[in-house]
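Lecture 7, part B: from sequences to assemblies.

Below are the input chains for today's worked example.
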Amino acid sequence: MSIKENQDIIVEEFSLLDEWMDKYNYLIDLGKTIPLIDPANRKEENLIRGCQSRVWLDASFEQGQIRYKADSDAIITKGIAALLIRVLDDHSPEEILQAELFFIDAIGLREHLSPTRSNGLVSMLKQMKLYALAFKTKEESQ
Amino acid sequence: MSFPVQDIRRDFPLLSQKVHGKDLIYFDNAATTQKPEVVINRMNDLLRVGNSSIHRSVNYLSDQMTRDYEAARDVVKNFIGAENSKEIIFTSGATGSINTIAFSFGEAFVSSGDEIIVSELEHHSNIVPWQMLCERKGASLKVLPMDENGELRLDLLPSLINDKTRLLSVSQVSNSMGTINPVEEIIELAHSYDVPVLVDGAQSVQHSAVDVKKMDCDFFVFSGHKIYGPTGIGVLYGKEKWLDRLPPYQGGGDMIDRVSFEKTTFNELPFKFEAGTTNYIGVIGLAESIKYINNIGFEALKEYEFFLRDYTLEALKSVPGITFYGTAKEKVAIFSFLMNQIHPYDAGLVLDKLGIAIRTGTHCTMPVMEHFGIEGTIRASLCFYNTKEEIDRFVEGLLLVQEMFT
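Predicted structure of the full complex, as structure tokens:
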């Protein structure tokens, strides 16, 4: 499934949730499905430090596709991190670099990806794209 | 309790709004306080029909504004009990005031090998300027520790002071835990070693009457926006004998006497420290907020705030799995706590949706968080416009948070 299709599905899922509490409860559940970073990789180099919550992100390159793993100490943050991974995971660096993420706005969680929130998610997204750039550069130089 | 809290709430237009469809509960008063209508109206009037630069022109408006500005200085002087108005300097905030002293006092009196003392429970604004000073001068920073209750270890202070100590800087009230520090005792002890003391009053002036002469501090600082006044304005009080001996912090307009390319001579106190066009409308707004507080009177205000404090403490104790950080005997209505393993950020997000504004995180006191070995807390900070009913709703909110995250 393309990155766009992944986002369409999420938008559809959230359209069934009217109340903020349902959305948060869903994010709490989504957090439990996150491809969890190996405990050994939950280290300083992989830590994205927000002032409010912390996110750990790791990526690997398998058969031309990037695989992400993450974790967060805050549960809502973890749920949104899980969504970001669900959208971008298992795609080529090129696709990830060109991806336009519209789903955050569409599901009404934009405030969670604002730089002033300082929950680590903005930096996480940036880091996901940086991994894509790094893997792309590496691939091209081989 | 006869405190007219409902009348008082009507003075604060912001408080009557709904957030996410719920009546706003504003429990983030240690971060900033809301403004009474008298402050808003006064500043609005000045912007509409009063604006003119102070101390400069012969025109009617400028003259009027200058008078109001200097009258505001007198209001502040009387509010903190300073000896004379020359000792009151307007800055951009408590942080601006501390930076002024860290620079000017540092230039005059601190050199390589000297020492500055701060306490473990300080806001970053009362740590970093001194670190920067120490870096500049090759001096070192000493830290007065606190205990598990968030109370300062006064017994350790004598062992920290020596003939290299140049200044001690301490807050009167901790912003993250609400501890009321025994500043008078600290000052007496420091003075017995001839060490001057700066008291950070950012979290104290809004809760109880301050008398700088009785306290005998050498410098005292606070912010306008934490005492129901505007942002971007602060006060630096200094004993005249100190301020006279300090060089200016910033150069520019208003702080000069004569300027030539060969030599510039500086204006006298307090103007020496007020470079550039000051935030005069903010200053007059601040005076208005102080008058508002004076009208209520600290006796009634304090009694009601202590009632809120005790009520909040009892109410929070009923929340299962709660751990308090900062359990000093003497404290204001600031509560830092965690519930079970729930992340403060998660709690804050849910409380926000319930219309409850609190603060989560480190509260600009990372060393305090480090002391307790935690990443941050939930902080509720109350003041005299808050109510018992709001506290009840807050506790209900916390129980919902627990339900969602455990």
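Note for the exam: Chain B touches chain A at residues 20, 343-346, 348-350, 353, 360-362, 375-376, 404-405 (CB under 8 Å). Keep this in mind when comparing with the next example.
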